[in-house]
Structures are given as C-alpha cells and as structure tokens.
Amino acid sequence: MGIDSEERVVRSNCRGCHGGCGVLVHVRDGVITKLEGDPDFPTNRGSMCSKGLAFKQLVYHPDRLKHPVKRAGKRGEGKWERITWDEALDTIASKLQQVIRDHGAESIALGQGTSREGESFLARFANLTGTPNIFAAGHFCYLSRVGASLITCGNLPLADYDGNPKCVMVWASNIMWTNPDEYTGENLARVLAQGAKLIVVDPRLTYQASRADIWLKLRPGTDAALALGMANVIISEKLYDKEFVHKHVHGWDEFVERVRQYSLEKVEEITWVPAEQIREAARLFAQTKPATIQWGVPIEQGINCIDADRLLIDLVAITGNLDVPGGAALFRPPKGQTISQFTHHRDLAPEQKAKYLGGEKYKLAAMIGLVPEKMVWDAIFTGKPYPVKAIMIHGSNPVVTRANAREAYRALSQVDFLEVGDFFLTPTAELADIVLPVSTWLEADYTGGFFFRHGYLFPRRKIVQIGECKSDFEIFNELGRRMGQEQWGATYLEDLDSIVEPSGRKWADVRDLPYLRGEVEYRKYERNGFSTPTRKFELYCTTFEKWGYDPLPQYREVPESPVSKPEVAKEYPYILMAGQRTPVFFHSEHRMIPWLRELHPDPIAEIHPQVAKEHGIEDGDWIYIESPRGRIKHRAWVTPTIDPRLVAIQHGWWFPEQKDPGHGWDQSSSNILTDNDPETYDVSMGASNLRVMLCKVYPVAEEEVS
Fold first, then answer.
1. 106 and 199 together in one domain
2. Comparison of pLDDT for 484 and 43, the residue scoring more
3. 459 assigned to some structural domain
C-alpha cells in the first residue's frame, strides 16, 4: 500500500475563477478525490461555487494538454507534433532572440487573461526581455478600477464585509453568481442576513435585485450619469461628510459645479431611472452608516470606464465611508514584494519604456503597464510605429474574449511567431506555433492572492503532477534563464523566496500556512494623507489635468445607442447587453467540464415576452442576435425579468466538443457583434466597448439549427 492509501486533506485556495476561496483538497493514492470549501477560510467561510466543486474534472480531463506541442501543418489546421520541454523552450528563446536582433525587443508582446496570478512573472520576463508591450483584460476589467483609484486616493477601496456594513450598494455586480475578485457572495449574504440594507443597480431583475430595498433599473451603459445624479442629491441635501470634505478633499468646489450639471430630471432622461428613486437611493446610502459599494466590470467595459469607477469611489468618500470599518477599506498587503514591483516596468530601460504602444494616448493604461490589444493588432497589420513579430499568450483566449473577435483572429493568424500556454487547445491556442501545457492551481506552489488588494496572501501548495505540465512561474523562470536574464532564481521557488523575503521569511516558512494578512488599520489618511500629488482625496484629478484629460468625471453617451445612433436603431431596435455571467463558467473557461456543461449546455439570450411574440420566438428556440457587425446564435429565454427594450446575451462561448480546430469560436461569441474602434474607447484607459450596442433578433431557420 502506498503512503497515500488513506485519504489525506490538504488546505489550499481555489483559482477556478477569481474568488480565491479556501478549499479542502481530499487526496488518496496521489489522486484528488474531492474538493470542498474550507469553513475556516476568511474569504468564503466554507462556501464554494460549482466551478470549484467541479474543478477535479478539469484537472483529469482527457483532452487536457499534458506535453508541449508544435504546429505540424499550416496555422489553424489543428495538426500538432509532440516535442520535449527543452525543444519548446529553446525554440521560443531562439525566436525571441532573433526578433530582438532584427527588430528590437519592443517587437515582442506578451498577453495574459483574467489573472491566473502568473502576471508577476510574465511582467518580469517582459521587462527583462526589454519589451514594454503587455496586453491583458485589465484595461477593461479590474485594473481599470485600480488605475482610477491610484489617481484618486492612492489605493483601491474594497467593501469591508468583516466590518459589518449597514448598507451595501451592489452596482453592476452579480456577486452571488460570480464571486468576483477579492470576495465571494457569501460575504454579501451574511451581512444581509444581519439586516444590512441593499441597493442594487442593474438593468435586469437578478436574484439580488429581487431582494433589494431599492432596485435602480438603469439603461445599460449610463452608470456614470446615475452616479452623478446621486452625488447631486447628496450635495444639494447636505448629506455629505462635511469634516472629511473640509480636511481631506481636493477640488470640492469644482466637483460641486460639475455635479450641478446633472439635475435629476436630466439624469432620469439619460438613465430611465425615475428621479424619486435616485433621490431615495442616495439618501439611504448617505444616511446609513457604515455603507459600502460592491461593483462589477460592466461599468468598466465602455467609454465611461474610468469616470464611472472614479464616481463610485467619490460616492464612498464624500459620505464618510472611505477607509472606515464596514465602509470601503484601503487594505495593506502582508510584508513582502508587491505586484507593482513586477508589473510597473521597473526593470525596463527608459528608452524601451518610451516605445510603449499607445502610451501617448492612453496614459493611465501606460501608468499601470498595459497596452490595449488593438495597438498590438494594428502593429501586426501595418508595421507601425514598428512591427510586432512575436506574441506570447498565457492564460487567455483573446479570439473569443476580445472586442471584434474576427480582428483578433486575423492578427494572431498573421503574427510571425505565436506561443500559447494553456490547459487545453483553445481557439487561440489552435493558432499558435508552440503550445505549452500549463499547470492548474492544484499543481504548483505559489503565492495566491498576490494580485489583489484585500490584504491577504494565500500560500498555494503543489498537490498533484499532471503529465509534463509546468506552472507559468516555472516556464518564465526557465525561459528567462535561457534568454540570459540573470535576475531569475536557480528555480522558481527561489523567486517565491524573493516575494516573501521582506517579511524575514522564506517560501518554505509560509507555504503550509492557511494565509497571511497585512495589518488592518482604518482612517490611515488622518496620519499620512492619501498617496496622490496633493496628499488629498482628489475629486479634481491633478494627474488628469497634467495629462490633458478632463480632471472631473463626466458622462459620455454610449457610442451605439438609440440616442447616439437613431438611424442605426431603426434597423437594430434593441439595446444589447453582452457579457451576462453564469454561475458555472468563468469568461471563456470551463465549457469542457461535464458537470458544468450539463448544468448549462447552451448560450442563452434573455428576451421579453413582448419581443418574442413580435418575432415569432418561443422559449428555448435558437435565435440569431445581429448587430451592424455580424450575427451569432443563442437559445431564447423568454422572461419578464428583462425590459422589452433590451436583449441580454452571454459571453465567452466556444464549443470544445466540436473537434475542428476552431471549436465553433465564431458561432455564439458575443465579440462577433462588438467593434474595436478606438473612437469608442475610454479616453485614458483604452477600455473597449464589450457591453452595450444595438441589435435585432429573429428565429434561426429550422434547417440551420445544428
């Protein structure tokens, strides 16, 4: 009998999505038998979503990529040849070195997705290679709010659920389903059970909206206008925290003047939310202490991205709820290196940093070290301002997840050399020259939570080895040393030592701990001020003023709406909300997991019964959703929970069971419908419009259903 013949339980934390839940991993004879929530873990307290519970099926999936492969035919044909790790890494290093010799390091770009927490090593590799060009989902997801907070108050304020808020405003976040970022839906459920008031801002009647004390049913994409209207009420009725404003705010008078431009009558016209409801919600939020805001990515995936983020932080601050117990806290990480020490181009020579694609236009994105991928695609197509010749993508599927999917597909098909690291041969990986098999969170030691602002670090333990898979951390360490980068450790575990070293410990000292937490202290601004140029909370952003952007937040009309494009609306009469979340998938991931796919086999479009009747659609029918740029298929869910002026669809869809190399990437992906026009971007961050556009719907002919 082996040493594992009796079941053992290993504590870790899940990375099946974004939540970082504590998990108990049951192991017998070296095989994972079960995953369950850890009741003693601070972020989830034993709860666990379907993605985490089913993750064992991903680890042992028969289609899992278990060894490096190289393309054996034309790009996109799906013909692969198994190779060794030495051949794979030597080939990648050789290709990159050739690009550096022929074109310069800036002609290499690295891409990542919605955080598998390898971004620190990816960024270090990029910096040491000499390229400033890293593209990710961050410029329209999460890192945009980090950027907005850096220029407003110096750090990202987070809902302090442990401080027991008495009012929570859930804004564009389906937290009970998605368990996003630093916290899980369990936290919200707990404070609501304790009697906290709930305000929900969402166009759809979600479970949370059905429980809300006030539900603000706004027109998609108008969040910034609604926030300005709420600020108008708070200021005009003198519900703001006068002491905080007097002592700690920069630009109050200018902000008040801007807010006065958004009367409730004007905001009602823009947002569809009745003025009296806006007033009621603003009063409840301002007068119930402490209060906090939990917000999601829909407000960040469009032209109002940074101003909407800034405004939600502003609402927290002017009501006296910033960095207080139960408000929105500015947490400190445990002692150690921070993510910014890896990602902010600190190892990049100034002359190379100056070559950042899009840096002159999207200065906030440049500040946090990200390039909108459109800049990379255009450099591939045009060679301007210089050509991009090689791309490395880890933990991302841009063919499905980026705006204008056909443009992304074309760019990745045309680049001279493409390497992808992933668990499976995704539609993006199918275009690569070399694909590397990457370990999951159950197969690597690493510092979980390193990326986030909740003040925790979650040591993650290697529990199993699958095939020849290596973690992103191992890959970049080994590749960096092949490239002659002397800053890497002899193994990646030495690099983990360097992350925790400022605490006086080694990785071996912390790897078996459940978590580390930074010191929790509130109202730090009273002693230190804020980490901004004025040392105050900046309603009037001096950084934006220096960069030539509007220092005050404003509302910009959605680029494609009945208001901005009335002629287009005649043919495409419905407002399309793309990107609706499900509780079983994470962006484009997990559609090959049997348990999860059984729960949700098809992409779903929500339409109102009135719309269904007008177009001859029955519940469960396959329908086309068409924008001015293309059409896709979803199954219709006919429901009165959606406004008859709206259609809501899901994102991230591809079909792993389709064995052709494309895996149906263009059949149901919402990004067949989106454009990638810089004129629709957020002005400072380059956030692309993934969410709101115009569409029409009609049945799929019976002979076209497959």
1. no
2. 484
3. no
